[in-house]
């Protein structure tokens, strides 16, 4: 598996480590080539990790973040020479591992160029961030993606939206298969309130408290205990704190709503969001799955208010697996996830799962309708939402689909 980034935090990072674990547990010999400096933090099921040295320490990204020991810059700011050097270094790392039955490469750029340069059989997973944040509007990058994808055996898209975006940006691609990302249904599951709260506080007690923006806020243990001692209607957002994620729409929707919010994540928009948030809103900083598995069951609804297209609705599916109804912007991959859940919860509840992107009033109406349902009815709908995840998006199901056609 080739992945240019880390193994925790963002969607493609989680995707990579989850697949590595599932394929390894299924008996395959898996090596992940990535930039994760601390792979021991993650359960990879026995998969190995190789970290190639990057020329000049330069890492091409789609959204700027900080990376330990690397100089992260936007892909669109790389010169052709810098891009070529990056591809050559990563392809050499793959070849140094010896012959493989398959190279599974993440992101059209730079996964397709790396896969093509490896000289081995390769498949590419298009995640969407590269398409929307780097390649759209850049004919040179779009052409590079098209040329290198031509050598891929299969290109995977996580949703119909990503398949359409891929064709819009790079043109027709031979053999695109839609296989959505997955959810760890053993990690994300319903949990009784007191057990969930104890688990959340226990995980917070293990946090480093070092003030790093990629880590939880230092005082979360006490703040969680104080916040959740009261069993009040609670809405949660978890994801990056950047403007395109639309958290500001959720905060506006809370006005006049008998509910409080928990906002999980890090990003350069946090300070602005804190200024917009109504009193009582809890900002936690970045949380890991070990926290979220306990936090989600303490909430009554999860909101994914992105105003920008999303490849899939991973956070919505994780909330549903925890027995929490997600409410998402009605576009892109988010709408496809809502539709899958809607088939299980029935048409009346399905109508509450989406709202027009950016429409705070409509979001307020959806949340009000969910929060006024009897607790037992919300629990029934949450369990139905989980059934949708089990049938469609468990990592075991997804991992098997991705390798089903390999001879």
Report on the structure:
The chain starts with 10 loop residues before the first helix and ends with a helix. The longest helix is centred in the C-terminal third of the chain and has 18 residues, at 375-392. It has a 6-stranded parallel β-sheet with strand order 11-10-9-12-13-14, with helices on both faces. Strands 5-6-7-8 form a 4-stranded parallel β-sheet. It has a two-stranded parallel ribbon with strand order 1-2. The chain folds into 2 domains: 11-179, Glycogen Phosphorylase B (Rossmann fold); 193-392, Rossmann fold, CATH 3.40.50. The chain is globular and about 60 Å long. With 407 residues, it is α/β, with parallel strands linked by helices. Helix content is 44%, strand content 13%. Helix 7 (193-204) packs antiparallel against helix 11 (289-295). The model has no long low-confidence stretch (mean pLDDT 95). The chain contains 17 helices and 14 strands. It has helices at residues 11-25, 80-96, 108-118, 129-135, 139-149, 160-170, 193-204, 220-228, 247-253, 270-276, 289-295, 314-321, 332-345, 347-350, 360-371, 375-392, 395-403, and strands at residues 31-33, 48-50, 58-61, 71-74, 103-106, 122-126, 155-157, 176-178, 234-238, 260-264, 282-285, 301-304, 325-329, 354-355.
């Amino acid at each position: 598996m080739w992945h240019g980034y880390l193994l925790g935090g963002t969607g493609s990072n989680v995707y990579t480590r989850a697949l590595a674990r599932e394929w390894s547990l299924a008996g395959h010999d898996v090596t992940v080539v990535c930039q994760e400096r601390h792979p021991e933090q993650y359960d990879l099921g026995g998969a190995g990790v190789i970290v190639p040295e990057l020329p000049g320490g330069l890492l091409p990204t789609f959204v700027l973040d900080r990376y330990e020991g690397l100089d992260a810059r936007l892909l669109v700011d790389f010169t052709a020479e810098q891009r070529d050097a990056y591809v050559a270094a990563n392809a050499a790392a793959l070849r140094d591992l010896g012959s493989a039955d398959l190279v599974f490469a993440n992101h059209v750029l730079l996964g397709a160029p790396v896969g093509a340069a490896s000289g081995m059989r390769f498949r590419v997973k298009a995640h969407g961030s590269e398409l929307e944040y780097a390649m759209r509007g850049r004919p040179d990058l779009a052409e590079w993606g098209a040329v290198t994808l031509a050598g891929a055996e299969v290109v995977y898209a996580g949703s119909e939206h990503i398949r359409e975006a891929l064709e819009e940006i790079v043109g027709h691609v031979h053999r695109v298969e839609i296989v959505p990302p997955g959810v760890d249904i053993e990690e994300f599951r319903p949990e009784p309130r007191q057990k969930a709260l104890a688990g959340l506080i226990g995980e917070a007690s293990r946090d480093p408290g070092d003030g790093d923006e990629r880590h939880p806020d230092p005082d979360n243990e006490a703040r969680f205990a104080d916040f959740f001692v009261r069993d009040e209607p609670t809405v949660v957002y978890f994801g990056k704190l950047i403007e395109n994620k639309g958290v500001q729409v959720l905060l506006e929707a809370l006005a006049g709503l008998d509910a409080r919010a928990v906002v999980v994540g890090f990003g350069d928009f946090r300070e602005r969001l804190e200024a917009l948030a109504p009193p009582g809103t809890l900002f936690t900083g970045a949380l890991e799955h070990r926290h979220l598995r306990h936090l989600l069951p303490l909430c009554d609804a999860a909101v994914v208010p992105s105003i920008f297209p999303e490849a899939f609705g991973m956070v919505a599916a994780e909330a549903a697996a925890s027995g929490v109804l997600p409410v998402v912007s009605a576009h892109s991959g988010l709408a496809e996830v809502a539709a899958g859940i809607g088939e299980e919860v029935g048409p009346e509840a399905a109508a509450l799962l989406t709202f027009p992107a950016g429409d705070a009033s409509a979001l307020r109406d959806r949340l009000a309708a969910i929060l006024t349902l009897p607790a037992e009815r919300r629990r029934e709908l949450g369990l139905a939402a989980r059934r949708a995840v089990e049938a469609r998006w468990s990592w075991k199901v997804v991992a098997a689909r991705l390798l089903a056609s390999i001879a």
